[in-house]
Amino acid sequence: MSETTAGQDLCVCFPAAGGGGVTLTLLRDAAARHGLTALTLPNADSVPDLDSGRWQERTVEEIRRAADRGGARRIVLAGHSMGGLSAVRLHPALHADGARQIGVLVINTPCPDSSGRIPTMSQLSDPEIAQVLAHDGFPPELLDDKDMLAEIAHGLRADAAVADRLAERFGPTGRLTDLHVLCGRDDRFIPPERCAAWAHRVSGEFHLTVVPGGHSLDPARTTALGRALAGVLAVTRTEEGAA
């Protein structure tokens, strides 16, 4: 967890399934460049953790404590893939108290369809998961090791089951006030059209940025990520002024 500094707004970062990765690092770096405190928090660690409400309760409380500590007037909820679903899920709870302006940025996060379904790894075999990871540049020497692949695939399937439930929980009628989406044009697992579908779930401003690359952001996309984050801040600044 990052130490907060008085007067700094807060960017809460949620990882993709499996946790960590280059995209999360780029997101944290972008937050720091924009003068935000970056706070990395985990997704729910299991379906029972999500269904019981424990994950939401402790995460919302941790975000509020960090915002209070740093004197934040605005909070950006940002997440990559599954982490974006976590950000969307937490938005209503944080937005409801009206204490701060809340913005949301998601990266390669699929919009649930009318049945609450998303592209998922929860039902994929080890070789099928290996194909997805290989396309995203995962080290081939790890994928060629059957024991290592089995361990990686097991963890990803467990996370994907939570992502599936997050998507179901959002439901066909769930709506956001504003949303910024960044996605990779060449992401075969979460194609851009699944990210663009969020437009139908947003009542206010919707911004979609499509960049070259796959499911994980390449460092060459740093500028685009920074602009997307700046866009979220611009919207929340406008809302704060209107309030």
Task: Give a structural overview.
With 243 residues, this protein is of the alpha/beta class. The protein has a six-stranded parallel β-sheet with strand order 2-1-3-4-5-6, with helices on both faces. Helix 1 links the parallel strand 1 and strand 2.
Number of helices: 9
What structural category do the secondary elements indicate? alpha/beta
Bin the strand percentage: 5-15%
What kind of oligomer do you see?
single chain
Estimate the helix proportion, in percent.
40-55%
Question: What Rg, in angstroms, do the CA atoms define?
Answer: 17 Å
What is the mean predicted local confidence, pLDDT? 90
Q: How many β-strand runs?
A: 6
Instruction: Point out poorly predicted stretches.
Output: 1-5
Spatial arrangement of strands, main beta sheet: 2-1-3-4-5-6
Large-scale geometry: globular
**How far from one another are the termini?**
31 Å
Report the order of strands and helices.
Answer: EHEHHEHEHHHEHEH
**Largest β sheet strand count, sense and barrel closure:** 6 strands, parallel
Topology:
Layout: E1 10-14, H1 22-33, E2 37-40, H2 47-51, H3 54-70, E3 74-80, H4 82-96, E4 101-107, H5 126-135, H6 140-143, H7 146-170, E5 179-184, H8 192-196, E6 206-211, H9 222-242
Parallel strand pairs: 1-2, 1-3, 3-4, 4-5, 5-6
Keywords:
disordered N terminus; 243 residues; 6-stranded parallel sheet; 6 strands
In brief:
The protein has helices spanning 22-33, 47-51, 54-70, 82-96, 126-135, 140-143, 146-170, 192-196, 222-242; strands at 10-14, 37-40, 74-80, 101-107, 179-184, 206-211.
